[in-house]
Amino acid sequence: VSLLTDFGLRDPSPAILHGVILGIAPEARIVDVSHEVEKFAIRDGAFLLSLALPYLPVGVHVGVVDPGVGTDRRPIAIRVARGDVLVGPDNGLLLPATAGLGGIEAVRLLAEPRLMRPEISRSFHGRDIFAPVAAHLAASGAGFEDVGPPIDPGDLVELAFARPEIAARELRTSVVYVDTFGNVKLGATPGDLAAAIGPLRDGRRLAIRLADGSAATSIAWHDTFGLAGEGDALLYEDSYGRLCLAINRGAAATRFDLRLDDPIEIGG
Amino acid sequence: VSLLTDFGLRDPSPAILHGVILGIAPEARIVDVSHEVEKFAIRDGAFLLSLALPYLPVGVHVGVVDPGVGTDRRPIAIRVARGDVLVGPDNGLLLPATAGLGGIEAVRLLAEPRLMRPEISRSFHGRDIFAPVAAHLAASGAGFEDVGPPIDPGDLVELAFARPEIAARELRTSVVYVDTFGNVKLGATPGDLAAAIGPLRDGRRLAIRLADGSAATSIAWHDTFGLAGEGDALLYEDSYGRLCLAINRGAAATRFDLRLDDPIEIGG
Amino acid sequence: VSLLTDFGLRDPSPAILHGVILGIAPEARIVDVSHEVEKFAIRDGAFLLSLALPYLPVGVHVGVVDPGVGTDRRPIAIRVARGDVLVGPDNGLLLPATAGLGGIEAVRLLAEPRLMRPEISRSFHGRDIFAPVAAHLAASGAGFEDVGPPIDPGDLVELAFARPEIAARELRTSVVYVDTFGNVKLGATPGDLAAAIGPLRDGRRLAIRLADGSAATSIAWHDTFGLAGEGDALLYEDSYGRLCLAINRGAAATRFDLRLDDPIEIGG
């Protein structure tokens, strides 16, 4: 069982999920993907799940970034081709990760009270619904079909992720995540950039333009951080195959004052 | 075995507790309740333990928020009716959690050197006393009676927690915990509030007065966050049955500048 | 298997290490020493490993503070006399911990692709090299000799750690680590201090001089925090046998504005 939430590690909520799961499935192995997702940031959570889950063993994955808890947003479970089941709210959090796990096979509404805690609070469905359902699935005390009626995958809430624009000699994209190093992950791949400006070789100079109207900045393409000078900015392919802006031993997000969704143009 | 400390996750101290426990009880399952309790904040630690432990499987629970380590404050173990044993310093940290676990059955002083590390430091009893004793108990290598002589439960150090005042048409209470969302947990229940001002229905307007002398603020009672407008304040029953002040997708503690023990009055 | 990195707990990288390890060694017990090591701070990571590992069961320990990832710095494994294997980059991170584990027995270059992920990224060797090699060792699917050819231990990259200077009536040392309490760990032992100024008894007054040119401050030697007045500074022997500057219920690093490597002189 894996867990991703925005609960924060100071509060006992992550431990309560562990406790609820171990109470139902004492043999379960639990991996904490993150409990420090930015509060209410469904897209950040969705992005982190999509990065992490392909590297985790096949299992049940619980995601809870859930500002709509207690309203009529639906609690769901998604089975993917790799064999995993993703459990959480139908607010777009789970969907992006399914592509990297072979795609969606089936979706179910969580509607079986026997698989939940006897009392359901209005604000902590992680504890009362998602964790117990996941634990029953992990312990094989329930099959996927037992959690509730099927839902049409086409009806699931979907997040809007910006697509890269490949123009003549320029790629237009935007920030999709800033990691704890201050590395800026962009909504495009090195392939997109090469399609716009041609082959990327270590040391090639590129011009990046930010939306703040400032002049273009010249930075180099490098194959890894350590090939840039210390304190120098670089564009590179991150370890997930994504285009990423970084500073060798520094924080690009701080240097360039970049936040989620900020646009960025990269020329050759 | 569960662990709650104020050690912080950057330092290796929580891992050292894991290592000491696994060295004695290799099969133990360890749940980290929190290692990010505010430094020296015994009451915060006590509050978090009382929230979390009822949801954890029966086991041995170690609590270490221990500014008096190395002085004459006593190391203790408390057995509760549910079957758990709580291990830590006698400074009030463990006591509040016992009520939710069926109440105290017996208390013992930790005084058996064979269950501790051979050398006891003056400043890290978590590593040298509490974790090894807990591990021996968890591994059934020692029974509760083996840890040391009995102590009268009435002699334990007790923390002062403010009680709510139910006045005519007004409830007077105070802040008992601010969670990582900035939600403000109060020292009263919705039942206390209803006793003062009558039934609480979704959408009912309430007037809150803070101690800073500012005018009363009108906010609504809601059954959950998502029923308030985005950015709107609400009072609601949290998932532990407690009265709580929050902002839908925001941080009430920041908006109202509230800290531990700050008084708050709520009128109908 | 234990893990120490500077990845940060918000990002999914620590969970990905867990996932990769559990995929290869499903029965492995994983202890997170820390993932909140200051970014790129190889010395901090080395110091924390050296504190923690002696208290962990014999096992495979992965360390990743690795600003040179993807350059020609070598990936290595070190076997120590206690029986542990340390896995990580050859940048000085692993070496200081070996002394507390009985010393180095042998060193190997990680060069066996069968023990790694099929594709090696340029920036995430924790996932692609270190974690899988460690998991194969932990699962006994590979012996230490299988990971690659031997390296001369004398060729390993070594960090410079300042040594204490014991002068007449004065000890000169410097800050080696600031923990999450703000306690300041110094590069000397109480034995070094006693060698300079004579026996240390609880309550003895000492004079500390900082490099900022300010006048000496008089503080007391105490056996533990709680014996100093609340808010008073003290020098004491920390729970690892190290000289440490602290404030009872406060943060010495903040009060004295001390950072890594800052010099400090202590007189009798």
Radius of gyration of chain A, CA atoms, in whole angstroms: 21 Å
What is the helix/strand order of chain A? EHEHEEEHEHEEEEHEEEEHE
Q: Which range does the strand content of chain A fall in?
A: 25-35%
Q: What ranges of chain A have pLDDT less than 50 throughout 5 or more consecutive residues?
A: none
Structural class of chain A: alpha+beta
The assembly state of the depicted protein chains is: homotrimer
Number of strands of chain A: 15
Number of helices of chain A: 6
Largest protein interface?
A: A-B, 28 and 33 residues
Overall pLDDT of chain A: 95
Q: Percentage of helical residues of chain A?
A: 10-25%
Inertia-based shape of chain A: elongated
Strand numbers in spatial order across the main sheet of chain A = 2-1-3-5-4-6-7
Largest sheet of chain A: 7 strands, mixed
Distance from N terminus to C terminus of chain A (CA atoms, Å) equals: 45 Å
